[in-house]
Amino acid sequence: MDWTEIKIKIPTAYIEIAGDIANLVVPYGIYIEDYSDLEIQAREVAHIDLIDEELLNADRENGIIHIYISPEDNPNEAVAFLEARLDAENIPHSIETDTTVWEDWINNWKKYFRSTKVGEKLLINPAWEDTKLDDEVAVGRVILNLEPGVAFGSGTHETTRLCLAALEKYVNNKTAMLDVGCGSGILSVAALLLGAKTAVGVDIDKLAVKTAIENGKMNGFDEDRYTVVHGDLTDKISGKYSLICANIVADAIILLSKNIRQFMTDDAVYIVSGIIDMREQEVKEALENYGFTIINRYEENGWICMELK
Q1: Whole-angstrom Cα distance, residue 213 to residue 270?
Q2: Alpha-carbon distance 65 to 67, whole Å?
Q3: In total, how many domains does the chain have?
């Protein structure tokens, strides 16, 4: 079974923080090429003066981070995740994959994506699996059928799982939910399946909007209950919501939270996720400055999710 190699080219000045981000994608390590201080490292680490000519000719301005994605995982989601996080940190970059063509590896991972229990009430079920309510894995749970496509949000990443587990506590038949940066629509569709009255999703990516709409329809929700908007954060949004979720990145959460209260009912819960632990304090201080109180905090593998009032 083939693995997928992802290569991220970045200026060497950003190697350390980009490496931290890359390490969060896989649990088994990464490989970094950085020749910016080759001569120093050769003398101080390898204790040699003679350096191969090919190495001497290597790019000193840019480094390459190599990530290897196992066949069980979705390389497309890893690339989407890396793009979002590197953009959020304003790190110049380019991303390449190995010679496996896009159409192959975007589908090959599907045979490893199985039904997954999330929180206490949900079962995330791949659209290509025929899982029934009376199947052992689904007993006592609501089934969310999902086709992630090329949008972020299959339920396998920590940020999404944390957000799903948090939101299920607050959904009832009066809930009006807003999903900012909806990706595949997994959070807003989950809220509807758990009984929310209405849900609105918004994403800057047109393909994500298309995917979210299709996932809504797949689970039985049309525009009378589920609306998906193409826009940046809340620039196209109006109305009041009792539950707002934002599974995005630290900088976007800080920017969004400055004005999000105008969309909240008096008793609304605001759930934010997608925060790398190294940015937690910065986000926390911004939220408190905007008048929010953290009522719950969750962490998994370096990712933080917060519930706020």
Answers
A1: 23
A2: 7
A3: 2
